Amino acid sequence: MLLPYSVSDHQQACIFFPGIDFLNLHRFPSIDAACAVANMLNERFYNVLMLTIIGQWNQSYRHILASPIIPLHLYRHRLDISLPPYYGDHPAVNFPTSSTHKSLLVMLFNASSSFREDSLEAFARSDAVTILNECDDQPSLVCDVAGSVVQWENALKASKFVLIHEGMPYFKLALQRALQATIIPVIFVPNYVLPFSDYIDWHLISLRPSSLTRVLDVIKGLATTKVESMRVQIRK
After folding, report:
1. pLDDT tens-digit profile of 46-73?
2. Spatial separation of the C-alpha atoms in residues 81 and 234, rounded to whole Å
3. I need a labelling partner for 104 at 20 to 30 A (CA). Which of 35, 59, 82, 171 fits?
4. 3 within a domain of the structure (yes/no)
5. Residues 6+ positions from 4 with CB-CB distance below 8 Å
6. Nearest in space to 149 (alpha carbons), one of 94, 90, 110
7. Shortest CA distance to 141 belongs to which of 133, 111, 108?
8. How far apart are CA 227 and CA 213, in angstroms?
9. Full domain range(s) for residue 56
10. What values do phi and psi take at 30, rounded to 5?
11. Considering Cα of 209, then 111, then 132, then 97, what sign does the dihedral take?
12. What is the pTM of this model?
């Protein structure tokens, strides 16, 4: 019914009629359209709860934002809400799993060069670490150090700990999958606010070493009862 009167350029529109679900920003036809709706709300209203679990709103100091893992410099304590990201269900891929189950999983595929270099220096010589990287002959796939194609989520489930670092472009997804599998995350995301940080004591369910070089020492120093206690807290 509205099609004859709609325009593709938001600057030509006099009325915004967003027939979308604000929980999913990717349903907007374009980034410009999403920004236009956000700016309209920002200019005309106060104290609107802008909630999304897929995608992330730009900062607005006139509204309450609830969105996935908000950058620290945008977050307002006791006002905004940092949510877990939502990626939906996805079909399993039947790649073989790595034959070696180790304590710590480190995922370097598509990672930043600085994080990759620091991780290799800290973990490459350890027998307790599974390192995943892009496959040499098929960069779109993930391989272990032996060159075997693996599904990283299977490797995650076979580990006790997983490194979560903001140098990983998919660290939000990795954190979500780790908690779903009750794998203890070792977290290095100082520039982001973890989900529900005002209500969850993340020190009970994760490790926060001072540096990558300290990770293995911290893990080795954990008693079995402490590890199980942390996993119980994750299940809650």
Report:
1. 666 777 766 666 656 667 777 778 888 7
2. 20
3. 82
4. no
5. none
6. 94
7. 133
8. 20
9. 10-82
10. -160, 165
11. positive
12. 0.75
